[in-house]
Design goal:
Layout lengths: L1 H9 L6 E5 L2 H14 L10 H8 E3 L8 E7 L8 H8 L2 H9 L1 E8 L2 H4 L5 H7 L2
Parallel strand pairs: 1-2, 1-3, 3-4
Helix pairs in contact: 2-3
Length: 129
């Protein structure tokens, strides 16, 4: 995720994006990681704390909002975390809200092999190249 943000910053791409995840613990860790990385310095028009609070969160926190791009960070990267992946993949609204927030592009970060077995994420896997 940080590598993608750094590439966008270096290309002077306006950061009109949301970084979202199905999981609260992942959202909190992403906010902390982005703040500590310094990637937002000289890139966003507002302070880092505010930007990360408004633009990084769970699927539920961005419901009703849109941005040019969405970065979906799936989390639950270990084979033993099937319950978390199945919970997220068994809720059609989670995936629907995620993909409909993006006006132009969606980036998906996660273990594709594990996530394609999680319910509705099978459909997402089929549509990704």
């Amino acid at each position: 995720m940080l590598r993608l943000l750094r590439q966008m910053a270096q290309a002077n791409v306006k950061p009109d994006l949301y970084i979202i995840t199905p999981f609260l613990i992942v959202a909190n860790r992403m906010r902390q990681t982005v703040r500590e990385s310094g990637v937002l310095k000289d890139w966003v028009d507002q302070d880092n704390w505010r930007w990360t609070s408004e633009r990084i969160g769970t699927v539920h926190t961005v419901q009703g909002r849109e941005a040019e791009a969405v970065i979906l960070v799936l989390g639950a990267p270990y084979p033993t975390q099937t319950g978390a992946r199945n919970w997220a993949g068994g809720r059609p609204n989670l995936l629907n809200v995620t993909v409909t927030r993006a006006k132009e592009v969606i980036y998906v970060i996660g273990n594709r092999q594990l996530w394609r077995e999680a319910g509705l994420f099978r459909e997402l896997d089929k549509r990704l190249s």
